[in-house]
Amino acid sequence: MANSKIALIYQRLVSLQEELKERNINLQVMDGGIYETLPEKLTELCVKNHVTHVYCNAEYEWDERQRDASVKNSLNKMDVAFATFHDTCLVKPTEIMNLKNEPYKVFTPYFKRWLEMTLRQLPGVPEKCSANDTGLKHSEDDNQYIESLISKTNRQGSDGSDAPSWPATASEITKKMNGFIVEFAPDYPKNRDIPSIEGTSKISPYLSIGALSPRQCLFHVLQEYGEDALSPEHGAYTWVKEIAWRDFYRYVMFHFPHVSRGLPFQKHYQYFKWENNQQHFDAWKAGETGYPIVDAAMIALKQTGWMHNRLRMIVASFYCKHLLLPWKWAEDYFMSQLIDGDYASNNGGWQWSASVGTDAAPYFRIFNPTTQSERFDPQGEFIKTWLPQLAHLSPKQVHEPSKHCDVQRLGYALPIVEHKASVARTKAQFKGFLAALK
Questions:
Q1: Which of 19, 242, 275, 381 is labelled catalytic?
Q2: Residue 212 gets which letter from DSSP?
Q3: Domain 267-437: CATH superfamily, name plus number
Q4: CA 337 to CA 305: how far, in whole Å?
Q5: 386 catalytic, yes or no?
Q6: Which helix or strand (DSSP H or E) is residue 148 part of?
Q7: How far is residue 297 from each of residues 67, 96, 387, measured CA to CA in Å?
Q8: Which residue, 349, 397, 399, is CA-closest to 370?
């Protein structure tokens, strides 16, 4: 997990503690340790405080499901009830099946059914609970423990990102979401691919830590636009579709648990021969591939903990289809850097880019990073922000500087691979692999 995400969680805990105090509810934070020790520690806490019921949101990854089963078993032995809610998804994974009562493997028919069910199941906003005596008393130890966690994160040093720049109170988070819905959602299809402007919601960090739910997102967009937001003609429809993609990748992990255990959805690809080229991997991570749009994106990720979605697709395609490196390496690296690191979405995205996942991009569909750069950063604004050594180049030069000047004199890298040769090699590798399976 990225240091930036850990810091955001701790900042949110500080705000949540204050928000709960207004309801006379004390927030106790417990270090559960590793999964194997959590059931015992949580049970001890419940017994000590005479807790009779434990509630949580369900998680759908394999290890998390095993953990929750162990927690339930441990609590039930001490007569403590354990119940889960399905609020990390809009629709429970078990409730969407095809006509054969089998899970969907393709997003489009899944999305059609998802839309039907979300409209049917969406509840209103619950009333705020009034202050009450919970029995769990506030103590200064709780304050000090949370503050110590934040201090510890700061001492360890971050991955270059600035988590405090992300608001952490419930009101600020809701305001950020609503501001996007009202001001930017109508133009989302047009602006979402331009990394140099504020064209996306940037609420994924809050979804990833549970500070927002997809149910809240859909409720507020429907509150603003009504069911027009679910029509393909409306700009907000594309944003709603992205929420559905998030649900879909959780759905896939639930029904096909091997994808959360290090295996590709299409299992035969576990035998595909990727290039174990550490030098290329290091260059990609450092933003030294010689392809400006890729390098600017990777540097921005390292310094901010954030990457625009179009850039995620570009750097992933380059990594998998130009460098032919193992997608698992990149999946793990992204999780170590992203403030919005989300296991299911990250895994699904990397498998999609590597052409090994469900509903994945065909292996022969390969982004040309230069043309992607010219299309989505035409003036080079994003590139020049993160690669200042290229700031003086013209829009024509900045996308492919090695063709126009001595980039090494500028302190920039030469391309580590040649586009056409790399694409040809990748296509041949995939084609040969698939032919051998027949």
A1: 242
A2: S
A3: DNA Cyclobutane Dipyrimidine Photolyase, subunit A, domain 3 (1.10.579.10)
A4: 5
A5: no
A6: helix 140-156
A7: 36, 36, 10
A8: 399
Close Cβ partners of 234 (under 8 Å, ≥ 6 residues apart) = 186, 225, 228
242 noted as active-site residue: yes
Superfamily covering domain 28-85? HUPs (3.40.50.620)
Q: Considering 26, 143, 309, 368, which one is annotated as catalytic?
A: 309
* 246 belongs to an annotated ligand binding site: yes
137-158 tens-digit pLDDT: 656 666 677 777 767 666 544 4
CB atoms within 10 A of CB 274: 16
Going from N- to C-terminal start, the domains of the chain cover 28-85, 90-124+167-255, 267-437
pLDDT in tens, 183-231: 999 999 999 999 999 999 999 999 999 999 999 999 999 999 999 999 9
Mean pLDDT of 321-344: 98
**Would the pLDDT of 380 be above 50?**
yes
**60 and 348 Cβ atoms separated by less than 8 Å:** no
Backbone angles phi, psi at 271, to 5 degrees: -100, 5
Q: pLDDT tens for residues 241-300?
A: 999 999 999 999 999 999 999 999 999 999 999 999 999 999 999 999 999 999 999 999
User: What phi and psi values does residue 250 have, to the nearest 5 degrees?
Assistant: -70, -40
Average pLDDT, the chain: 92
- Identify whether the C-beta of residue 111 lies closer than 8 Å to the C-beta of residue 244: yes
* Residue 6 annotated in ligand binding: no
Provide the pLDDT for residue 146.
73
What CATH number has the domain spanning 90-124+167-255?
1.25.40.80
**Of residues 114, 284, 306, 350, which has the active-site annotation?**
350
Cα separation of 252 and 392, whole Å? 46
Answer yes or no: is pLDDT of 361 > 80. Answer: yes
Residue 273 is labelled as binding a ligand? no
For residue 249, say whether it is annotated as part of any ligand binding site: yes
DSSP 173-198: HHHHHHHHHHHTGGGHHHHTT-TTS-
